[in-house]
C-alpha cells in the first residue's frame, strides 16, 4: 500500500459516522490514529464499546488513549449511543456480617448489562464499613457517599467519600459544612450535589441546605428551606432538584405533602403544595425520563404534572411488595424488597415503554441481606 492510499484509508469516511455524531473535544477528534491502521471512527466505536473492567487499565497504555478515556464527553457519547453500563448502587450489610452483632455495611452494585452483582472494595480508612444511613448519589462516572452515622460512635457524620469507577478507587471529598443524617441528596443538571434537611445529633430537623461541586471539591451554603424536613427525599426532575416531604422536629414521623425546589438564578426555595401523599414516607420516589415515580399502596405510580396527581402504572409484584431500595435503570426501575417477614430479599425490574412489564432479577445466595433505603445508579 503506497503512502497516499494509507492516508486516504485513515481519513474519516463520510458515510460511516460523521464527526458531529460524537460529543468529543477537537483535540481528541484530531488524533489521526487512535488505533494504528484503523480509521478514527471505527477505532472510536471500539472504545465506546469497552467493558467496564477495561476502562481503568487502558488509559495507562498511551497518552492518546488516556485523553479519550478521561474525557467526560467520551462517557456522554457512550451514553447517547447506548453503550454505557448502568450500575445500580445500594448500601447493604456485607454477606460475611450476617451473624455479627453489628452488621458491617458496604456498597453492592448490580450491573444491568452483565446481570451480575458485586461488592465495591472497602473504603481504606473505614474498617468498620461505610457510614450507617449515609446518602449516595451518582455524578458522572462517580459514586458519592455523604453523611450518615459514624460506624464507631454512631454520631452524625460530615464525611464525603467518592468512588471513581473509571479509576477503580476511593478518595475523600471535602467534608460537609453541617454533619447530618437522613437528609435529601441529589445531583442537579449541572452535576453539583444538593443536600438539604435531615437531622442533627440531637434529632432536630433541619432547614439548612448546601451544594457540593465535585470537580472543585468545594461546598457552598444555600439559603434555608422554608420548612424543616427530616427524612425527606430528593430527586432531579423538571430541570430542578426537588426536596420531597419530610417532617419537622415537633411532628416526628408525620410526613408532609409539600415539596420545595431551589432556583439557582433567583437563589431561593419555592414551596410546591400537595406534591406528595401526606403521611407517607418518600423513600421510594425516583425520577425516570424527567418524571417522578414512586411505590404507593402496592402500586408503581407516576405523578402527572398537569393534574398534580399520582396515577397507577402497574401493580408491584408480591415478592417485593415491602420495598427496601428503589433506583432507576436505563430502561426502567429496579426494586429491592421482600414479600413478608419470612421471605428472602429479592429484586425485580420494571421495563418502561410500549410493552411495559416486570422481570425478576437473579440475586444469588447472600447478595442481598439488610438493605438501607439508599440507592442510586451510576452510568459508566
Automatic annotation (TrEMBL):
<dbReference type="InterPro" id="IPR001810">
    <property type="entry name" value="F-box_dom"/>
</dbReference>
<dbReference type="InterPro" id="IPR036047">
    <property type="entry name" value="F-box-like_dom_sf"/>
</dbReference>
<dbReference type="InterPro" id="IPR044595">
    <property type="entry name" value="KMD1-4"/>
</dbReference>
<dbReference type="GO" id="GO:2000762">
    <property type="term" value="P:regulation of phenylpropanoid metabolic process"/>
</dbReference>
<dbReference type="GO" id="GO:0080037">
    <property type="term" value="P:negative regulation of cytokinin-activated signaling pathway"/>
</dbReference>
<protein>
    <recommendedName>
        <fullName>F-box domain-containing protein</fullName>
    </recommendedName>
</protein>
<feature type="domain" description="F-box">
    <location>
        <begin position="32"/>
        <end position="78"/>
    </location>
</feature>
<dbReference type="Pfam" id="PF00646">
    <property type="entry name" value="F-box"/>
</dbReference>
<dbReference type="InterPro" id="IPR015915">
    <property type="entry name" value="Kelch-typ_b-propeller"/>
</dbReference>
<dbReference type="Pfam" id="PF24681">
    <property type="entry name" value="Kelch_KLHDC2_KLHL20_DRC7"/>
</dbReference>
<dbReference type="InterPro" id="IPR006652">
    <property type="entry name" value="Kelch_1"/>
</dbReference>
